[in-house]
Amino acid sequence: MQSWSDTAVPSVPGQGPALRLYDTADRQVRPVTPGRTAKMYVCGITPYDATHLGHAATYLTFDLVNRIWRDAGHDVHYVQNVTDVDDPLFERAERDGEDWVVLGMRETALFREDMEALRVLPPRDYIGAVESVNEVVELVEKFVASGAAYVVDDPEYPDVYFRADATDQFGYESGYDRATMDHFFAERGGDPDRPGKKDPLDALVWRAQRPGEPSWPSPFGPGRPGWHIECAAIALNRIGSGFDVQGGGSDLIFPHHEFSAAHAESATGTGRFARHYVHTGMIGLDGEKMSKSRGNLVFVSKLRGEGVDPAAIRLGLLAGHYRTDRAWTDEVLADAQARLALWRKAAALESAPSAEDTIARLRQHLADDLDTPKALDAIDGWARRAVDHGGPDATAPAALATAVDALLGVDLR
Ligand code: 5CA
Ligand code: ZN
Predict the structure, then answer these.
(1) Which residues does a 6 A CB cutoff place in the pocket of ligand 1?
(2) Which ligand has the nearest atom to the CA of 46?
(3) Which of 6, 167, 266, 404 has the lowest tally of Cβ within 10 angstroms?
(4) At what angle are helices 258-268 and 228-239 packed, to 10 degrees?
(5) What is the pLDDT of residues 327-355, one digit of tens each?
(6) Nearest residue CA, atom 5 of ligand 1?
(7) Alpha-carbon distance 162 to 144, whole Å?
(8) Which atom of ligand 1 is found nearest the CA of 279?
(9) How far apart are CA 378 and CA 385, in angstroms?
(10) For residue 263, how many other CB atoms are within 10 A of its CB?
(11) Could you write out the DSSP letters of every residue in 125-138?
């Protein structure tokens, strides 16, 4: 699939500390240690509706990781998928009397526009589920051959399931006990009651064709990919096993990332799928998680249409720490707009206090598990001093603006 357009990232003199991130599997903040090429996979959208602020917050989080790595001189191989074949697409298309392919294409196009407007750096590989069906089929064949997956005894719908106990380390990513797994499996797209499964937790990897559903040929009959296997296949075939960061919202901790990891680990027989599993908190509205099923959504495109500066959306979402569940409110937006105006005013001054310390603090806070509240505070302090009292350094406004552009993705000019 076509990715979106790149934004130039200016280089910032000097260097920051190495990035440390919280790893869900190890339950601690620890250093990320990429090689020359840093490798990241972030779960993409299911394109049946427009991008809301929850999605945006998640992609902005991983955009910071991308920018920090670039600032440290790494080449970044960033991969993202688009779940362009899934039940929600068919349901919405049916409701609106539209072709599901057209719906997916339109919402994906809008997502690209939103990402560009927010200055999110594009993935190198942007891959749809439809494009990766052959990759999924190859994996399923491997699982069936090794006994990691089985075909249910149902001549009408011979679906293929992956055994939750196919790997020894199943459960290490979420760290959940069985009751918690059962709970989230049922809540987040699983089918514990499907007759013929050996364990209610076993995960669908190939769904036999149902009437009216699209299908692709396979050795197990016509059908379509399961969900977790889509991300396992797309990541494995582009950045291999043992890549640096697997990202997504906290709603993907289980079962999605647990099974993607188990699929990949069963296929390769090697260690961990990802070295860090990084999860963002949920953005809410009116006391509830923002989600398509609840309908309590604020769309990026709607705000853009109302003339809200995407840089203010960016600052509003980065004002809270990425791991905390937090609400989007009018106040969050107003604060972000005021902050952006202050920063722009300071960046436009002829001279200001030296920005060197502030840039160093910006890098330090970001490297410390993306501590954006402190990073933004540091810039606020400099900007307020600059606007209130001026300063002697004629290079400081441009130097600060360059660092804010490169590291936070906010254009102050
Ligand atoms: N296509 C799958 C991933 S393979 C999917 O979850 N799509 S999605 O459109 O539902 O979500 C896209 C991304 O946004 C996921 O990483 C998800 O965890 C994240 N996300 C969804 N809702 C929120 C929210 N309210 N706050 C923060 N992140 C969210
Ligand atoms: Zn995914």
Answers:
(1) 43-46, 54-55, 57-58, 81, 83, 231, 248-249, 251-252, 280, 282-283, 289-291
(2) 1
(3) 6
(4) 50
(5) 999 999 999 999 999 999 999 999 999 99
(6) 45
(7) 8
(8) 18
(9) 11
(10) 32
(11) EEEETGGGHHHHHH
